[in-house]
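Changelog-adjacent note: as of this version, every example in the card shows the full chain rather than a window. The one below runs 107 residues end to end.
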Amino acid sequence: MPALTRSEVEEIALLARLHLEPEELERLERELGVILEHFQTIAAVDTAGVPAMVHAVPMDLRLRVDVAEPSLAAEIALAGAPRREADLLVVPSSIAQPGRTGTGTEP
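Full-length structure tokens:
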């Protein structure tokens, strides 16, 4: 895996929404290159005979039987809700429409 180019580091910074000064770009180019070298070392390890594992510590998972049970009543579930309409919890919009604030207070 070759080291990252300056333009690749700039693209990564853009995708991460980071503004980096030229000296920061140079430093990150070196540091990310070292990280990629470590990944090359790890990738070179022969793991053909190593069994897959889910957790680093052996453990038995105690699972309960999946049984359908009655739901919590809406009145109880929404008792502490700051704003609700009928049996629904009203929350602010995550994407405001043009001319609206997205606070969930508009009609």
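Structural remarks: Residues 9 and 28 are 7 Å apart (CA to CA).
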